Structures
1.
Amino acid sequence: MTIQPPATGCRDVPVLKERGQREVFCGLTGIIWLHRKMQDAFFLVVGSRTCAHLLQSAAGVMIFAEPRFGTAILEEKDLAGLADANTELDREVARLLSRRPDIRQLFLVGSCPSEVIKLDLHRAAERLSALHAPHVRVLNFTGSGIETTFTQGEDACLAAMVPALAPTQARELLLVGALPDVVEDQALALLSAMGIGPVRCLPSRRADDAPAVGPNTVFALTQPFLGSTHEALTRRGARHIPAPFPFGEEGTTLWLRAVAKEFGVSDATFDAVTAAPRARAIKAIASQADTLNGKTLFMFPDSQLEPPLARFLTRECGMVALEVGTPYLHRDILGPDLDLLAKGPVISEGQDVDRQLDRARAARPDLTVCGLGLANPLEAEGLTTKWAIELVFTPVHFYEQAGDLAALFARPLRRRALLNASKLEAAE
Ligand code: SF4
C-alpha cells in the first residue's frame, strides 16, 4: 500500500484563532457514552436542574431500570452558601452506594454551579474514596460549560483515571478512548490476528479490568480529543504512537500500520489481516462517495473530530473543504491527519460564532457540519446541515464502519436533493 500525501498539507498552515461566543454543548454530554461503556461506574453530576435536564434530554431515548448517572442538585441554599454542600454530598453518596452495591467506580462530575461556588470535588472524592474503599473508588472531573466543550468531558474523565492506574513494567499496548464495545472488539480482533498483545483498553468495561501503566506501555489514541489524557499517560512514562485517526479505510490502515510497526509485524502479515476488511471498507465508501464527490464542506468547531473527518471526506469521498473548525487544535495529536489534509481550507481554532456564521453564509457550502443550535436556522436559510453530535453517538471508527461514516454525511445531501426535486415537481 502506498499512501500519497498532498504536496502541501495543513500541519504548518496559519490557523485562524477565534475567542468569542461559542455554540457548543458542555462536557457533561460525554457521560451519555461513558456510562454505557463503563458498566460498573456511576456518574454523579454535582450541578443544577439545568444540568439534570441536559442529561435527561440528551439521554432521553434510553430508559434504564437502574441508571448509571444522576444529578445531585445544588439548591439555592447551597449556592448561597447557607448549607454545607459537602455534608449533603456525603449523605447522597452514602445513600446511593448502599442502594447500589454494583457500583465500583463513582465519578463526581463538576458543573458550572459547583465551580461557581468553588466546591472542591477533588477533596470530596479523596474523602469519599477513603470512606468507601476498597469496594468503590471515587474520582472527580469537570464537565462544566465554563471549562469544557462536549468531547472534553471524556478527556477529563480518562485523565482523572490515569493517576489511579496501577504501575507496571510490562510492554503492553493501551487503546485509549471510549469506543462502542462492538467497534472495540473489531479493533482487538485485527490486532490479535497480527499477533499484537497484550492489549488493554482505557476505559475498561469493568473496574477490575483497569489497565496498568508504566515506562514500557505504548498507547494509541482512538479519539483526537484526548489531549489531557495523552499528557497524563506521558507523565506516567507511557509513549504515544502517533498516527492518523482510524476513520475511513485510509485512516484505519495508517493507524493499524503505525501500531503494527511498533510491534514489528511483517508487511505480509499486515496485508493478509487487513486485505479483506479494507476491500469491504473501500466498497462501502464508494457506494456513498458519488453523493459527496465535489461537494463543498464547512465544519463548525464541536467535537475536535473535525480535522481527521475533513481528511477522510476530502481524500476518500472527494469533498472540498472550505473551513475546518475545531474547538482546540492539538498539533502533536493531529499532526499526521493535518499532513494528509491538502492545503486550502481555512483551519480555525476556537469560535466567534457570529463571524463564523458570516463566513458560512458567504461560502454557501453544500454541507455544513455544526451543533444542534445552529443547524435549524441554517437549514431555514437553505443550507444543508449535519449534526456534529451524531458523530460521537454513532459507531464510526475502523473498517466496518467506514461506509456508515460516509453515509452520515451523504444522507443530508440526498434528503436535500429529494426536497428540491419535489419542490420542482410541485411548481410544474
Ligand atoms: S454544566 Fe453548565 S453548561 Fe453544562 S448543563 Fe450544567 S449549567 Fe449548563
Note: The two ends are 51 Å apart (CA to CA).
2.
Amino acid sequence: MHGAPGAVSKIAARTRATQQALQPRKDTKLLSTEDSRENLRIGIVGCGGIGGRHLLSYQNNGHTPAALADAFPEAAAKAAEKWGGKPYGDWREMFAQEQLDAISVCTPPNVHREISVAALEAGIPVLCEKPMTTTLADAEAIAQAAESTGTLFFIGHCHRFQPQIQKLRELIDAGELGAVRMFRTRIGFHFLRAESSWFTDAEISGGGILIDTHVHSVDIFRYLCGEVEEVTALTSTMDTPLGPAMRVEDSAIMTVRSTEGVLGVMEASWRTPPGEVQVTVYGTAARAVVNYQTLQLTLQKADEKEARPIEVEDANRFDREIEHFLACVRGEQQPRLKPEDGVIAIRCLMAAYESRGVQVL
Ligand SMILES: NC(=O)c1ccc[n+]([C@@H]2O[C@H](COP(=O)([O-])OP(=O)(O)OC[C@H]3O[C@@H](n4cnc5c(N)ncnc54)[C@H](O)[C@@H]3O)[C@@H](O)[C@H]2O)c1
C-alpha cells in the first residue's frame, strides 16, 4: 500500500512548503485567561492502553475526565469506573452532549482524522496520539482543519518530553557535543500477540513497525539534529520461534540525512527481546547516549576515557506532555509541537516506505 520500490526520497522541499503553508495563526482559538479553569472538561476518545496512560497523566495533573468514549461501550464504562467521567459508546454523542474544553484521541490511527477534524470543527482542542494518520493526505487534512478553524491540534510525539532527551537537546544547544554528525536509535522488544492485534493490520495501522515506532525516532531526530532531507528504509518480516511472519514488517531500518548533513540510523523490531530503547548522538566533541532502561543520559567527551552520567530531573514524559497540553489549552504556553510536526513525520515515513528495496539479487 505504500507504492512501488524506488530510489532515495527527497523530502525537504515539500517540508518547507508545509511549514510555509501552515504558519501558526496568531488568532489560534484558546481559552482566554478569564475563561480558564483549574479543572478543564477533558474528554478521552479510545480507552485502551494509551488511553489509560493519558487518564493517569491527566489525574497526575489534577484532572478527572468529564467524559470517555470508546467504540466498545464496555471499555468506556470500565475506564469511567476507574477514572471517573461519563462513559459513551460513540464519540459523536459525547461531543454533542458534553461541553468539552479538550480531548485526547487515543484510538488506532485509521480514525484519527475523522475524530480530530470533527473536534476541531466543533472548536475542541485536540491532543492526538502518534502516528498522526495512516496516510499523508489524512495528516494534511487535519493540519488544514486546525488552520481553518484556528483550534489547537497537538500531535503526541511524547519523546520530546522525555527528560533525558530534553537535557540532551540542551547539551547540543550549549555546544557540548561540538558539531552533531551522526544519530542512532534502537527500539527493540518482543511485541506479544502482535499477529492478532490491529497494529499488524495495515488498513488500521498504516503499516508495521516502521510507521508505528520510527515515527518516534523521526521526531527525536528532528528535535535533536534538524530537518530531514532524505530517507531510505529496509523492512522485513519472517517466521521466528516467537511467532509466524506478520502481515506487516516486524523489523525495519531507516536511514535519514538532515538538510545540514547529519546522518541518522534508526532500528526497530517487534521480535528482538530483551527490550531496548536507546538514542545516541555523535558530535565532533562528544558522544551522548540516552538509555531508556536505566533512564540515564551519559556524555563522553573526545578526550575522556569513560562516559559520565549527566544529572536529569526525574519525570514521566506523558505527565509532562499533558501538563504542557493543558497549559496550551489555557493559553498559558505556546504549543511545542505543531500540526506540521505530525505531517512532516508522516511524510518521512511514507517516503521511507516508498524507498524500500533497491534490488541487487
Ligand atoms: N505515544 C506512545 O508511546 C504510544 C504508545 C502506545 C500506543 N500509542 C498510540 O495510541 C493509539 C492507540 O493505541 P493503543 O495501544 O491504546 O490501542 P488499544 O487497542 O489498546 O486501544 C484503542 C482503543 O480505541 C478504541 N477504538 C477503536 N476505534 C474507535 C473509534 N472509532 N471510536 C472510539 N474508540 C475506538 C478501541 O476499542 C480501544 O479500546 C495508536 O495511535 C497508537 O499508535 C502511542
Note: The pocket of nicotinamide-adenine-dinucleotide is lined by residues 45-51, 69-72, 75, 91, 106-109, 111, 129-130, 156, 158, 212 (CB under 6 Å).
